[in-house]
Amino acid sequence: MRGAGADRSTSQSLDRGLVLMELIGQRPDGISVTELAAATGTHRTIVTRLLKTLARRDYVVRDQFGQYRLGGRLLELARFVQPQVRAAALPILRVLAERIGATAHLTMADGDEAVALIVVEPTTAPYHVSYRAGTRRPLGRGASGTAILSARPVEEVELPSVAAARARGWALSEGELEKGAIGIAAPLPHPQYANYSTGVVMLTAPESPDEVGRAVIEAAAAIAARVV
């Protein structure tokens, strides 16, 4: 298992448990004990014992088919991550979600992944995209991650979508993460929160992507203005 036993000053059991949660987080449809044991190179008995400990504290849950998923305790802890930007973003995201009639989000870059910190669903739209805070996606896929990359210095080799997002001020994705879903996002114009983006995810293409793009840029600017 990654990192296990590499440094005697650290806890091997804790490291193993954290690695298990990372692997479970990458499988929203669930993952079995056997798969986790194979992925980590750890005996099934050890993996089972670690999962029971995590499940007792609701960090993971086991469904009727024996598959493990992340538990609600992680969502509770997520409230305490970056509380300032969360507090600034939440009311603005609520307004954005209702204005566009689509699911709004605040997303943060974590290494080469984009992590959804806040997800706000519209209350009036008959249909909308639904996903959990804490969901991770590759940074180079989807509007939220592309928007974050577009705020970084130009690289010699970069994705065309990143260059396009930088040119117009907002990123667009079509079906990159979910079939049929349209994403529009913009980076937060704030030096301390340059690795953040906000945006919306829609089930159908908007009549005017530019209009939605402007709304998302306004929301990003409003969040940045509220953060000291």
Describe the structure.
- The protein has 2 domains: 12-73, Winged helix-like DNA-binding domain superfamily/Winged helix DNA-binding domain (Arc Repressor Mutant, subunit A, Orthogonal Bundle), CATH 1.10.10.10; 79-226, Beta-Lactamase, CATH 3.30.450.40.
- Helices cover 42% and strands 18% of the residues.
- It contains 8 helices and 8 strands, in the order αααββααβββααβββα.
- It has a 6-stranded antiparallel β-sheet, sandwiched between helices. The protein has a two-stranded antiparallel ribbon with strand order 1-2.
- Residues 1-5 have low confidence and may be disordered.
Query: How many helix segments?
Result: 8
β-strand amount: 15-25%
String of helices and strands: HHHEEHHEEEHHEEEH
Strand order of the largest sheet: 5-4-3-8-7-6
Mean pLDDT: 87
Into how many domains do the coordinates divide? Answer: 2
Uncertain runs are 1-5
In the CATH classification, which architecture of the largest domain applies? 2-Layer Sandwich
Secondary structure category: alpha+beta
CATH topology of the largest domain: Beta-Lactamase
Molecular shape: globular
Question: For the record, what CATH class of the largest domain applies?
Answer: Alpha Beta
CATH superfamily descriptor of the largest domain: GAF domain
| Helix content estimate | 40-55%
> Gap between N and C termini, in Å?
41 Å
Sheet of most strands: 6 strands, antiparallel
Cα radius of gyration in angstroms:
19 Å
